[in-house]
Amino acid sequence: MTSVQTGPAPTGALAGVPVLQLAAVRAGYGRIDVLHGIDLELHQGEVFALLGPNGAGKSTTLAVASGQITPSSGGLLLCGRDVTGVAADALARAGVCLIPEGRGIFPNLTVAENLRMATYTGHSYHDVLDLAFAQFPRLGERRKQTAGTMSGGEQQMLSMARALATEPAVLLIDELSMGLAPIIVEELYEHVRRIAASGLSILIVEQFAHEILGLADRAGIMLHGRLLHTGPPASIAGELSDAYLGADHGAPGATSSPT
Amino acid sequence: MTNDEHTDATGTMSPSRLTQFEAEVGKLKVTGGGANPERLGSWWGIGLTILGFVVAIISFWNALDSGANNTDTELRSQIFAVIGVGIAIVGIAIWVRNSLTRYLRYWIVRLVYEQREQTEQLIQALRDGK
Asked: Does the residue A1 lie in any domain?
């Protein structure tokens, strides 16, 4: 399958090599395996939407991709290099950035103080503020406001701004729409659309598909810790109702379709 | 490195950022991918402690069996006993270090969540009071 990529064409040694790849990943929490052999490729400039019902293993997949969970078997590869077991902070400094579910901001710090957290990559404080406020002017108006007192949408903007200020090469977004009004979600996805057009590789997890299928190059459906289908959003849309309404895709013997 | 080197005014990522990313990934130290290193460290600590005590106990019995006049064997047994106790101390230190790391990690995560929860409750109370 040929994916449609919105960003600049891959260059040099990166051509054809996935920016991020999960190869036969099994992972979980303690003795409980949540992922049962995930194969996933994210190419340069691609937006990959990972869909599935609650408890399918989507967030765990992002935790593996960001280095927060080390797979019990299988591997995490960046630009073709096996980086399984590398600490999450090292991956973040290299350019793999996660916007976690529930925003992950510090509610008792101000907007500017939250953005200061993004200086760990070596960018100056002023660069971080300039970039964040250029993309989200509303945050500039509220730079001295305590982050927890802002609306949910503004908090999510802050979370996105902080992530983008680190100038990531791979962006992982977990449940952007969680707890937000549809109109706010639409606005946030407009930002994601702009970011995607800049050539960033984005792996985005969503429980509700409608918002995301419009901007994804490829999508995959997860169920019971397995990636059941991957393909263009149009082909995935038809499979979604089965996955959400409990068709027995997760039964033993079900296999992942090739990416 | 500044943002301007890799992004233009609209935030568009340049190919040099990709090259830089590839170089950064190349520099990452791959540790081999052991899941849950603290748990592994704790098990190593416990294992070394047991091994140290076993060596010390065997040396003690060996010294007892050697008889009163066999000073060479007694000296050797004492040396092995000291080595055994040393291994046990190292094992205990490794176990304490890894257990503390695990405990403190959970503690700080809990602290962050509790603070977040309290702040949200406070904000909610302020909103309800308006």
From this structure: no
Question: Do A79 and A182 belong to one domain?
Answer: yes
Q: Which residues does B90 contact at the CB level (< 8 Å), separation at least 6?
A: B48, B52
Residue B6 has pLDDT above 80, yes or no: no
Q: Which domain holds residue A115?
A: 96-167
Report if residue A11 sits inside a domain: no
Do the Cβ atoms of A163 and A114 come closer than 8 Å? no
**Average pLDDT of each block of 10 consecutive residues along chain A (259 residues)?**
42 71 90 89 92 88 93 91 89 90 84 89 87 90 90 90 89 88 86 86 85 87 89 81 60 39
Residues of B in contact with A194 (CB under 8 A): 10-11
Nearest-CA distance B55 → chain A (Å): 33
Amino acid at B71: T
Residue in B closest to A151 by C-alpha? B123
The CA-based angle A90-B13-A111, given to 5 degrees, is 65
Q: Compute the distance between CA of residue A101 and CA of residue A59 in angstroms, rounded to an integer.
A: 8
Angle at A127 between CA A194 and CA A164, to 5 degrees: 35
Pair A208, A126 in one domain: no
* Residue A37 and residue A132 in one domain: no
Neighbouring C-beta atoms of residue A186, cutoff 10 Å: 12
Q: pLDDT tens, B7-39?
A: 544 445 566 777 888 888 888 877 655 556 778
In a domain, A178, yes or no: yes
Q: A interface mutation test: which of B6, B10, B13 has the most A CBs within 10 A?
A: B13
Instruction: Write the CATH number for A32.
Output: 3.40.50.300
Give the count of domains, chain A.
2
Give how far B98 is from chain A: nearest CA, Å.
16
Which pLDDT score, from 0 to 100, does residue A24 have? 94
ipTM: 0.71
